[in-house]
Amino acid sequence: MSRRSPYLLASAIALAVVAGAAAGEPPPARPWMDAALSPDARAALVVQAMTPDEKFQLITARYGSGSDGRPMPDGALGSAGFVPALARLGLPALQETDAGLGVARPLNAHSSDGATALPSGLATAASWDPAVAEAGGAMIGLEAHRKGFNVLLAGGVNLLRDPRNGRNFEYAGEDPLLAGIMAGHAVRGVQSQHVVSTLKHYAVNDLETGRNTMNAKLDPVAARESDLRAFEIALGIGEPGSVMCAYNRVNGTYACENEWLLDQVLKRDWGFKGFVMSDWGAVHSAAKSALAGLDQESAGETFDPQVYFDGPLREAVAAGEVPQARLDDMVQRILRSLFAVGAIDHPAGPAPIDYAADAKVAQDAAEAGAVLLRNEGGLLPLAGTLKSVAVIGAHADKGVLAGGGSSAVTAPGGNPVVGLAPTAWPGPVKYHPSAPLAAIARRVGGNARYASGADIAAAAELAASSEVAVVFVQQWAAESFDRPGMALDGNQDALVAAVAKANPRTVVVLENNGPVAMPWLAQTAAVLEAWYPGNAGGEAIARLLFGEVDPSGRLPLSWPRDESQLPRPAIAGAGLAEIGLPPQGKPADTVDYDIEGADVGYRWFQRRGEKPLFPFGYGLGYTTFGYGPLAVATDATGAVTASFTVTNTGRRAGADVPQLYARLPGEAASRLVGWQKVALQPGETKRIRLALPAVRFARYDERDHGWRVAAGACHLLLGHSSAQIEQQAKLRLPGVFPAGMQR
Ligand code: BGC
Question: Phi/psi at 617 (nearest 5 deg)?
Fold first, then answer.
């Protein structure tokens, strides 16, 4: 039988069902439960069987928790979003939960035991290993499913344009190719568990200050080549069921009613088949939003001035202002995504979770993504024979810091450091109960002692009387505010300086949102960037410090020396008074991203001829690597192959990330076009072949409305980072128009 006949038959049944429902007849057959049909066909069958009220119910998710005196909706799990089940049609409730680092607010009806916290998105990105991202996504997806959720609000891929953005830890860094590939694999991992993943926050939501009104000004072509490119790539790889439109305006129009962003770019140009959900409080209209491409309003009754997608949209549809077909399309898209990931065939529900196995996934990511920034005189790795180690600061006796806001996960075992400001939104400040002190002590026969760092003299004294000092410094950041500057809070700079002065064998471990100022850098022997290291962060840090695993993370960002090197040295209005960072003035109405345009991060530094403190792609290990000559070839389609050898030239096993950059004809800055993470034994050599699709060499051409590779000479650069190039080759690119979704 062809696909067409059951479809038509089903339509007839579905219509009969709607008529029958009113007459109180028995429930219909459910032809959409036939898993042999395509997700589109199944969704279409449901749409035909739905009443208008059912449609409006599906496009207006409610807040999934109680708030402001409102009770939690019946059937909700105490999370971010909820749509009641359509039992008549056999459709489960939509249970939506944050977010990309694990199931946030997991203490719901189905579980009281927390959830496994991945390290920062930046840590995962710093692994440069798509398999790490995918494993992390699959882990949190499975936990979500077993806690009863079928939509995870996971998939943050906003570009890091500013180290002070309070949500950098949720994202994947400054480069659209790296960020897009890593986020795409994370999404794929989540959806492999029958849970919809949500690419967000679309788009150009790159700062938190004034986030509900801020206008992000960015030339549309530059946007296509930077922020949008990250989304496009992630979308092509992960095929997320949903995309969340952001709070901010983009070139004057709110993202959730921005026809260019939603309808033109996302749905038409990229062929996105899933649904656009709003961020919580990001909707400002009914007809305008619906016509622009918004498919579902999130928690409007709690966060928007009114529920636009109920009364006002009903009126707009009745008046013909919004076509019925558009309403049906909204519903179709939501259902299609649920069918496509298997959320309906494999309903989420309570099931046991193997927290020990999941903690291992988080630990692997933390280990793969930590970046060794400095190691003078080979102080690291530490030896297990040390007789005395001073462990100082950042509550390292209790756990490791996490970022704040909607994505904050409470790990199994709870928060070991309670009561720190702010205790309310965007707090509470959370730590995960994986204490570095205990993990270090275990490795040196208990010879580790702790000083909190509150008393600098006491900490320096402990350091002076110890063979090695490990100082933990921390920077708490959270959704809803930006840090006004790169300086560490409180006495931490003075603490590190005093400890390093007392003992030159000082290692600094950073637990932070992103780049911080390090005025004491030259005084220290070693610095390990651990980001927010997640559930098993203490153990991961100790394994890295003691060389049980070789640091192999590489920076997914440029580390500025200070704010003066940034496109916007100050962010008006940044700060959060509760943590001693009083907002610096009034937020601006508009942020001008045209200053750097598509030249984000390392391209900005290259264009300006300036050197950051650490370049994009940088990271040390306990061994060294060398590259053989670079051979390149291209074919008529513009695809490029690059081949070279990597040799572990040191004495320890380790993993490297050889990176390939291209300098396109007529451009001053290079762009990342490929890389590979490769593990090598001492002395071992491997040949790497990178197949690079033509689109990686393309610029967006507005006249042709597509990607275009300009014919001409291109330089390929093979390096250890964006700034340390070892091999070069020249190539003649053919002029081509690569088609299809970015990869
Ligand atoms: C955040 C989103 C989040 C949503 C639901 C918003 O404030 O921007 O990332 O998914 O809340 O909690």
Answer: 90, -5
- pLDDT value of residue 1: 27
CA of residue 422 to ligand 1 center, whole Å: 18
Q: Best substitution site from 198, 256, 479 to test ligand 1's pocket, by max atoms within 8 Å of Cβ?
A: 479
pLDDT of residue 21: 47
Q: What is the pLDDT of residues 211-244, one digit of tens each?
A: 999 999 999 999 999 999 999 999 999 999 999 9
Chain segment 293-323, per-residue pLDDT in tens: 999 999 999 999 999 999 999 999 999 999 9
Whole-angstrom Cα distance, residue 534 to residue 369? 11
Smallest CA-to-CA distance from 471 within 415, 389, 366, 536 is with 389
Is 335 part of any domain?
Answer: no
Average of per-residue pLDDT across 671-684? 98
Do both 460 and 587 map to the same domain? no
Q: Does the residue 121 lie in any domain? A: no
Distance 521 CA to ligand 1 centre (A): 36
Quote the CA–CA distance of 220 and 236 in Å, as a whole number. 20
Are 534 and 584 members of one domain?
no
pLDDT single digits (tens) 637-665:
999 999 999 999 999 999 999 999 999 98
Mutate to test the pocket of ligand 1, among 95, 153, 158, 409 (most ligand atoms within 8 A of CB): 153
The two tokens of residue 455 are 């008393």
Which pTM does this prediction carry?
0.96
Long-range CB contacts (within 8 A, 24+) of 35-43: 35/345, 37/3, 37/6, 37/7, 38/3, 39/336, 39/337, 39/339, 39/340, 40/273, 40/332, 40/336, 41/3, 41/7, 42/335, 42/336, 42/339, 43/331, 43/332, 43/333, 43/335, 43/336, 43/339
Question: Are residue 727 and residue 701 in the same domain, yes or no?
Answer: yes
175, 279, 550, 599: the catalytic one is 279
CATH of the domain at 718: 2.60.40.10
Give yes or no: 279 in active site. Answer: yes
Amino acid residing at 236: G
Quote the domain boundaries for residue 596: 563-608
Quote the pLDDT of residue 735.
Answer: 94
For the chain, what is the domain count? 3
What is the tens place of the pLDDT at every residue in 394-438?
Answer: 999 999 999 999 999 999 999 999 999 999 999 999 999 999 999
- Which residue has its alpha carbon closest to ligand 1 atom 6? 280
